[in-house]
Amino acid sequence: MSSINLRQTGWLPNYHGGWAMISLPPLLGLCYSGFVPAHILLLVSWFAAYFLFFALVGFLRHNYATRYRPAIITYGILTTLTGSILLLMRPLLIAWFIPLFLLSIFTLYQAKIGKERSLLSGMATVLFASLMLPIAYQVKNADLPIYIIWLTIIVFMYFAGTVFYVKTNIRERKSLKYFCFSISFHIISLMIIFIYHHTHYFLIILWILLLFRAILVPSFIRKGKNISIKTIGILEIVLSVLLFIALL
Description:
mainly alpha
């Protein structure tokens, strides 16, 4: 079966930049906590949940098309099974259920009304993914130190910035308002990074690069330069890897 058919039936997500968003937070939390076997369950349930979400969005967007049902059932069972075993092993993680459940309901509702790519939906998805960092940390540890919370905020700021950035390149590429929002958000987040991490030169330089890419790439596109969605997604993966290295 081709990759196109897999995407059209909900088996394979087609968000190129999404892979970085779902991978970086849990892996970063794992690195800071130290690996335990329960992390395997977390990663399997998390990726299965992401695939399930993609299939559900397609199901809702296409008037409950039956072609999505096999993927929904398969990923639903895998998410439930691995997630339940993980909660039995680490009951402490149950505390995260309510915020994750509410974010899931909100994003699926946005998909149901055709607004799955709205700004609010994007921010909710980013927050959901960012919370996997402290969750991965607490798979092994009962405490939640302030530096883990701060790392989560940095990761959220990065991916929230990409929501604005991607919109200025695709759906809102002709909108000066979104372009200004994007630049403003990147400047504010850079100021926050500088204030709290003024000695972390790698992180500051990375954030300056993020600001320049938020200015230059949309400007090129507005001038008629052809930059594909896939290229934009691959660039985000590269920048996510640099962020991962910076935060280790």
